[in-house]
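[audit] Reproducing an earlier prediction to check determinism. Same input, same settings, fresh worker. If the tokens differ from the archived copy the diff job will pick it up downstream; this log only records the rerun itself.
[audit] input (310 residues):
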Amino acid sequence: MKSHEFSREELEHVAGEFCIPVIARTGPDCRGRVAFHELGENLTLAHAHWGGPLSVVRTDRMAARASANNLVVFCVYMAGRGRVRQHDRVAELAPGIGVLAEARSRYERVSATNTRRMSLRFSRELLPLRTAEITEACARSVDPAVPAMQMLSGYLGQLFEVANNLTAPQRQDAGHAAIDLLTMALRDVTPSVPGGDGPEGVLLEMMRTHVREHLGDPDLRVEELARRHHVSIRHAYTMFERIGTTPGAYLREQRLLAAQAMLSDPRCDRLTISSVAAAVGFRDLSTFERAFRRLYGTTPAGWRRAYRRS
């Protein structure tokens, strides 16, 4: 086992070394420690903890780089709360929860508390699931009450404790056994993947694109989205079930994601919070602030201040 204590300035290096390369923002007093075992080629088990609020993002440009885009990370959270976003889905983080993320797509994580987690990082080809199934499994909370998740959590904890006493071939076998248990756990939460895009898949993508391109339109609601695409409201809900969400939740999350980006952008510093809310389609400031706090754990003004300090 190897271990490393890190400061705020070293956080991005540590994330790239033991998890997924990201851009990190945190408070000035953030410190942490990571300990890890190399179980085999492109297979690492790490235990990490850090203090204070943290925001990380893997941008679209970073995700397009070939150097790390084959990596997948499954994290089991033992302490702390926050949220992970990937593929237009948001997974709530809490003790016992497991969450999968892939490096080939944009990824965001926000935590407002001290956090402790165990992570299994490996090449996606080691996971015996189709590409679409892996993508569908990302950013979905694996319930700690699920038997397969209980087995996986216990196994990872025990493996971390005894890995030093195993030979290299035994560590590799143990790592592959962990991936087999992970496969079982993911099949409990992953919805069935539609076979091919088909007309429904094309229409769903058109609706998602329309949402992203018209976030500033305050009249864009579920009813209006359905009307503009000539489908019933009920059918719109059915289509968005394919990606594990609802039309309203997707619209709200995209608006809040755009607002977060504006509040993090120095070029938007002169915009008031009300102007940011209006720019992403919120008519009412208090509604915007409540929704933002619910998703990111702080107010829009608090997010802007924290991001500037970091």
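[audit] rerun output stored. Observation attached for the diff report: The radius of gyration is 20 Å.
[audit] end
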